[in-house]
Design brief:
The chain is mainly α. The chain folds into two domains: 134 residues, Four Helix Bundle (Hemerythrin (Met), subunit A), CATH 1.20.120; 124 residues. Helix content is 75%, strand content 0%. InterPro entries: CHAD_dom, CHAD_dom_sf. It comes from Pandoraea morbifera.
Length: 308
């Protein structure tokens, strides 16, 4: 036993410049992870929760505005928010409960479609003003739009619908599974999913280029949706390097072209399903001919961008 201990005295402690002082113990409230997988899972849950809760909260605010006023811009922004939520859920689909994933995505799509019904009449009115500027618009279109808006307001005013929307983020976070072995971090996982989305888009672009007749329009519609998924993922996860910025710019041009084509196709379909919309105040045959000509022009422009 050392002499200092025998005499009941503490031995002096000497700290040299080369020896680092002992680390402080972490605070009691700091989370401790038994494994790297648990740490990655917590990180993933935190990021997903932040994105999901922000978008869900934004959608709730937009729905409240729609119920109060029903402005066209609020309807548009609400649809964008629902599409962003679908893109986010698609990203984490391998980690989410299958049934819950399907239920949430169906809710997002259903709410977006309700708002989209109103926009369909706005698009139709705009197109008719361009191709049939020599004829007054039918009052039937305004009446049908008012009915669609009333339906949207009624849907978004239902407490159970908005409650279901508000609960989606927390439910999804609770069901998240750990990262797969092929992804060592959340960034790696997200990058893998973005790569899958890009691959899906390229595959659809190739098939659209070889599709015949009416089938090509359907393929281009799917291409537009897949392009939106890529765009939303790059925006959500802030992939802002030079290559991604160039891709977003190219994607924006293609999306704009496909959007114009889709507006014409959707308006043609709306007129076919509801021929009474014109109300006898327009030459239906002449109008359809002009819309068909416009569709072909937008189709050529879209295909030129795809093949470039």
């Amino acid at each position: 036993m050392p002499q200092a201990a025998k005499e009941g005295k503490k031995a002096p402690i000497t700290v040299t410049r080369d020896v680092a002082p002992p680390r402080k113990a972490p605070p009691a409230e700091a989370p401790a992870f038994a494994t790297a997988s648990q740490a990655a899972s917590a990180c993933r849950s935190s990021t997903f929760s932040e994105l999901a809760s922000t978008l869900v909260r934004c959608g709730g605010v937009q729905a409240t505005r729609i119920v109060a006023a029903g402005a066209a811009e609020d309807l548009h922004q609400f649809r964008v928010t629902m599409r962003r939520l679908r893109a986010l859920w698609w990203t984490y689909r391998p980690l989410l409960d299958r049934r819950q994933y399907a239920r949430h995505r169906a809710l997002f799509k259903g709410l977006g479609d309700v708002a989209g019904q109103v926009r369909n009449y706005d698009v139709l009115s705009s197109l008719l003003a361009c191709v049939a500027h020599d004829a007054p618009l039918s009052e039937n279109i305004a009446r049908e739009r008012a009915l669609a808006l009333a339906h949207a307001k009624t849907t978004m005013a239902r407490r159970e619908v908005m409650r279901d929307l508000a609960n989606t983020s927390a439910q999804a976070v609770q069901s998240l599974r750990p990262l797969p072995k092929c992804a060592q971090s959340e960034d790696a996982f997200v990058s893998l999913r973005i790569a899958v989305a890009r691959k899906n888009m390229k595959r659809k672009a190739k098939s659209a280029g070889h599709a015949p007749g009416r089938s090509r329009l359907e393929q281009l519609h799917e291409l537009r949706k897949r392009g939106k998924t890529v765009r939303y993922l790059l925006e959500l996860f802030e992939h802002g390097n030079a290559a991604d910025k160039r891709h977003l710019k190219q994607l924006g041009r293609l999306q704009e072209s496909l959007g114009k084509l889709n507006d014409v196709v959707a308006s043609e379909a709306l007129l076919r399903s509801r021929p009474g919309l014109l109300g006898g105040r327009m030459d239906a045959a002449k109008l359809r001919k002009r819309l068909r000509s416009l569709r072909k022009r937008h189709l050529r422009a879209a295909m030129a961008l795809i093949r470039a």
